[in-house]
Amino acid sequence: MLEIIDTGLDIGGKTLLDNISFTIAPGEFVAICGPNGAGKSSLIRLMCGELPPTRGQVRWNGKALHDWNLLQLARQRALMQQRGEVGFDYTALEVILLGRHPHHQGAAREMDSRIAEAALFEVDAIHLAHQIYSTLSGGEQARVQMARVLAQIWEAAQGPRLLLLDEPTAALDPRQQHRILGIARTWANKGDVAVVAIVHDLNLAAQYADRIALMRDGRLQKMDGVEAVMNPDAVEACFDLPCVLLKHPDGGTPMIAARRNH
Amino acid sequence: MSSASTMPLSLRATRSVHARSKILLALGLVLFVIIVLAAGTGAVQIPPLLVIKLLVTPPFSTAWQDIPQEHMQQAMVLWNIRLPRLGLGILTGMALAISGAAMQALLRNPLAEPSLVGVSGGAALFASLAIVLGGSWMLALQQSIGEFALPIFAFIGSLLVTILIFIISTRQGRTSIALMLLAGIAIGSLCGALIGLMTFIASDLQMRSLNFWSLGSLGAATWPMVGMVSCLGGASVIILLKQASALNTLALGEVQASLLGVSVRKLNQVCITCIALAVGAVVSVTGIIGFIGLVAPHLVRLAVGPDQRVVMPACGLVGAILVLLSDLLARTIAAPTEIPVGIITALLGVPFFLALLFRMRRKIGL
Questions:
Q1: Can you give the residue ranges of every domain in chain B?
Q2: Which chain A positions have a beta carbon within 8 Å of B245's beta carbon?
Q3: Quick one: three-class SS letters along B285-296?
Q4: Looking at the predicted complex, does its ipTM rise above 0.95?
Q5: Is B251 an interface residue toward A (CB < 8 Å)?
Q6: How far apart are CA A96 and CA A85, in angstroms?
Q7: Residue B9 has pLDDT above 60, yes or no
Q8: Closest Cα partner for A116 from B14, B39, B108?
């Protein structure tokens, strides 16, 4: 269980996040949406423990993040960042093996290699295994990074897991966008994985997430089930964008389309 | 695709580990051959087989008594002159190259050099201060601790300057490596200016020893000196080698490394301390020997890839090989005069480095 309790974050005298509270249970997939500068990435930085909150607390499994042993936490929580740059000429497979560091701390075992390959296979990128990461396209790099975070928290035996994705679909073509969010959905369906993803495309979020959090100006504006969030008023209030509600002909997922800007 | 198709991949991964240990073994052999060759070359020639035979009969062993009279001179030269020099060369190469590899991993920049933490500049500054302004005070120091006077002074300088740079780039226990780079450049220039001032006011004689110091030489090698350097440098290098897999994770950036369970703050501080101690210990004795810390890691990465667990030990061996070869050249090319080894490493290192840049140029599509 991930608990965000009355949390706020100030950096350099500026309030980036304020008064945020919610919980996310394993088995759940929450999408975070909101305009640029709303604080989505800052929130995910708090959730992964990179930054300590200025106010309030972030707890994972009943324990504040900064009380966790770094290695133990690393086996349960992984973050895919927006820009996954890798220094030096590592191959895709080697990058994923770096993600196994909390499990082997240096001496990668046969099992780690197998998990790395399975993760690469899961993101449909096994053919990239021995290519140099820095020579891959942005979309290919994103898939390798996805495989890396999956490999990091691959084993269920490590307890409930937390998968944090900061705009995982930003660099991807539509087919790969659906593939990556489909994987996120599958992992949430495992029951012991809580998934949080920042997604810019509301309709994409609506198709895969259980709940959507709308953020604006460092505050949580609305957080609810997909049906409740996907209404034109809520979306307009968050994005200042007049829009209409549609139904996906295939399954009836609510979809939002913007009105034309005059 | 099924599990059957992923099998060969893991096989390949394990095979490359074997290939890497073979490379380390091969480098070790090369180093040994060079040690034997270099030990036998000089004013007193010693054939390779005799070198190996004498190597297993150190002066403190009982077998030393059994060395035939016609080999005694060679044995003395080997044990009193050549071996301490080789030992210092090996330590120098290892410390510079492994520190270079660690520095490049810390900065995620292949152009980083161990001297960026200010060690060399600090050592050079204090050495020149001692040489030019030391006067009678330095003379007295030399009378009490002899050959150690200048190195100890230089070592103190290297530490002081590194600490200064460290303080500038650290706030609330967090060290910004990028800030460190900038502070290192600034303080390095300041040291350079002060050294220039010392050169300006130096007498001809002082100028000569200043010059000699700044060009680097293994000529100061004696067993006590080697012992002192190996205590400080050796321990630091071993600690650096232990950080290899943590340094690997830094390739993903400091944030990801810490999310992978690595205490980045501690890693930065441990590595910088060890680099400063190792390079400081070496540079204080040898003077500035450039390019080893830059060239060796590049050479090694070309051959074995970026994995620090292989790169760092291989760098140690390659660094030692490069320094021994350069020193061999330095003392034979114009024999009986000795050219400062720093000149040789720069003469060989610069074209090599330019060749690397040309390769890189193609890679980035220029």
A1: 12-363
A2: 101, 105-107
A3: HHCCCCCHHHHH
A4: no
A5: yes
A6: 13
A7: no
A8: B14
The closest CB to that of A74, out of B9, B248, B259, belongs to: B259
Question: Is residue B88 within 8 Å of B319, Cβ to Cβ?
Answer: no
In the predicted structure, residue B5 carries a pLDDT above the cut 50: no
Domain B12-363, classified CATH 1.10.3470.10, yes or no? yes
* pLDDT value at B363 more than 90: no
Average pLDDT score over chain B: 85
In degrees and rounded to multiples of 5, residue B97 shows phi and psi of -70, -45
**Distance between CA atoms of B237 and B343, rounded to whole angstroms?**
25
> Tens of pLDDT along B171-183?
877 778 778 888 8
Q: Chain B partners of A105 at a C-beta cutoff of 8 Å?
A: 245, 261
Q: What are phi and psi of B82, to 5 degrees?
A: -70, -50
Q: How far is CA B126 from CA B186, B229, B281, in A?
A: 17, 18, 13
> What residues of chain A lie within 8 A of the CB of B110, using their CB?
88
Positions of chain A with pLDDT under 50: none
Kind and range of the H or E element at A78? strand A77-80
Q: B12 and A71: CB-CB below 8 Å? A: no
Domains identified in chain A and CATH numbers: 2-76+157-258 (3.40.50.300), 84-152 (no CATH)
CB-based contact A59:A65 (threshold 8 Å): yes
